[in-house]
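Practice problem 4.
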């Protein structure tokens, strides 16, 4: 197949379409959507842009899938991968080690908040979540609290698709077809302040009081389940599913107090939020709290190779350091040499190019640019932090009335999603909760890219408003 500058011959293009439809099983994809249309095929990327097989350019408004922190086409990262593959393509971390895994573990431990300094590599985010839950259970069994095994997480939160991570996930529509899942998980309200009362919060709370209320629901759940049975609570710094819910002031500080009071481990699921998405290496740093574990993935390599990690403290590893004890858990590709070599180079570039500073310097203007869209009647809320935003669409700005399932389907998937892409913006329209457009561009983006996003969103959302 010949591809020059993202273009290919009609023959090659037709073959690719046929083969995609006949053989490729895509993830979370309604395949029938392509019965009468082409599968979008992306062939190349450069900076914050990607190109399809017909040569059309798109702004990557989602960093692939919250992954491409440094953007596309970075030869330094490609070279780091090639050099490592030539030297040592594979070695597992099962009783053996290799230099780039050791060096990346040391670097990540140096960055991680407080006493977190033990890094267990995985292949991705869901595996990191599984690892954290298994460690929590195993740790308590070894330290005299064998009943502690349950997990608390928040409604609408997404934590992955493996059966444990899916069980922790708070999206019934993703779970029902796979029931029964791993038992012993319980949901508490999330921090959607825009719709706080609809999720049970008392009327008229200040953000601080709402944060206190939402955190206290965790204590209520622990009491309901029995403190002796609860092992961990899994929370994202900014919850993605539902459309970017940042924590209200004081929320995580109160959660920390509750976890200490009940001896429950606080797991900060930073699969999206770590590595610069919020202008810090970890979301816990941004909001000033100390987790007992961090789960991360995605941006650790900017997507040039797959990698995830669970980060814990000496305290959690201690029971496994003596008398032949072992955490009987692992993945063939967890800490793959190519991935860890890429991760190391990626994080070096973060420092060389002051990537975190770029996010911090520009986040206010990114927010302000997106907030200009609030003059469109269909835009109900613009929320998020760093380079991570959700724009909630509503039927009525004043009453916050949302859409019916049928309207959502027609508007979000029938029009907004397709039209944003047609206009040159790759991002995500999502209805796991109330309908939102999600934006999380590469961390190298600047005002010109924010303006481009806003202009495309304006055209499409304005038109969507007339289709109600
Ligand atoms: C917060 C969170 N946890 C876990 C996962 C699962 O990660 P993966 O798809 O790499 O398994 C995701 C994926 O987006 C996520 O956002």
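Answer key:
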């Amino acid at each position: 197949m010949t591809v020059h500058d993202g273009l290919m011959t009609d023959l090659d293009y037709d073959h690719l379409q046929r083969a995609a439809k006949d053989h490729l099983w895509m993830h979370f994809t309604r395949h029938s959507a392509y019965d009468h249309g082409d599968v979008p095929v992306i062939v190349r990327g450069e900076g914050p842009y990607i190109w399809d097989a017909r040569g059309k350019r798109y702004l990557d408004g989602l960093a692939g899938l919250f992954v491409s922190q440094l953007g596309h086409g970075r030869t330094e990262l490609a070279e780091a991968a090639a050099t490592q593959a030539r030297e040592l393509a594979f070695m597992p971390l099962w009783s053996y080690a290799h230099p780039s895994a050791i060096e990346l573990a040391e670097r990540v431990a140096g960055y991680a908040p407080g006493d977190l300094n033990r890094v267990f590599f995985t292949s991705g985010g869901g595996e990191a979540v599984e690892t954290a839950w298994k460690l929590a259970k195993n740790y308590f069994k070894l330290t005299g609290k064998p009943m502690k095994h349950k997990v608390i997480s928040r409604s609408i939160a997404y934590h992955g698709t493996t059966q444990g991570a899916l069980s922790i996930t708070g999206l019934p529509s993703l779970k029902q077809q796979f029931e029964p899942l791993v038992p012993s998980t319980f949901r508490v309200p999330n921090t959607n302040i825009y719709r706080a009362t609809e999720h049970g919060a008392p009327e008229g709370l200040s953000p601080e009081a709402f944060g206190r209320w939402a955190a206290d629901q965790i204590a209520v759940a622990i009491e309901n389940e029995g403190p002796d049975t609860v092992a961990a609570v899994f929370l994202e710094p900014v919850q993605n599913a539902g459309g970017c819910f940042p924590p209200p002031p004081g929320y995580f500080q109160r959660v920390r107090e509750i976890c200490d009071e009940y001896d429950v481990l606080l797991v900060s699921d930073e699969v999206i939020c770590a590595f610069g998405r919020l202008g810090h290496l970890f979301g816990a740093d941004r909001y000033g709290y100390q987790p007992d574990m961090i789960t991360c993935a995605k941006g650790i390599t900017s997507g040039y190779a797959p990698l995830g990690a669970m980060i814990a403290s000496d305290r959690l590893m201690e029971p496994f350091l003596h008398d032949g004890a072992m955490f009987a858990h692992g993945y063939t590709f967890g800490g793959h040499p190519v991935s860890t070599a890429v991760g190391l180079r990626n994080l070096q570039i973060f420092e060389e190019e002051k990537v975190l500073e770029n996010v911090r310097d520009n986040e206010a203007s990114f927010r302000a640019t997106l907030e200009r869209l609030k003059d469109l009647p269909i835009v109900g809320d613009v929320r998020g932090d760093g380079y991570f935003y959700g724009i909630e669409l509503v039927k009525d700005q004043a009453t916050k009335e949302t859409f019916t399932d049928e309207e959502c389907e027609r508007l979000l998937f029938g029009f907004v999603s397709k039209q944003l892409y047609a206009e040159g913006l790759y991002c995500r329209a999502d209805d796991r909760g109330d309908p939102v457009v999600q934006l999380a561009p590469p961390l190298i983006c600047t005002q010109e890219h924010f303006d481009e996003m806003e202009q495309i969103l304006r055209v499409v959302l304005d038109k969507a408003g007339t289709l109600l």
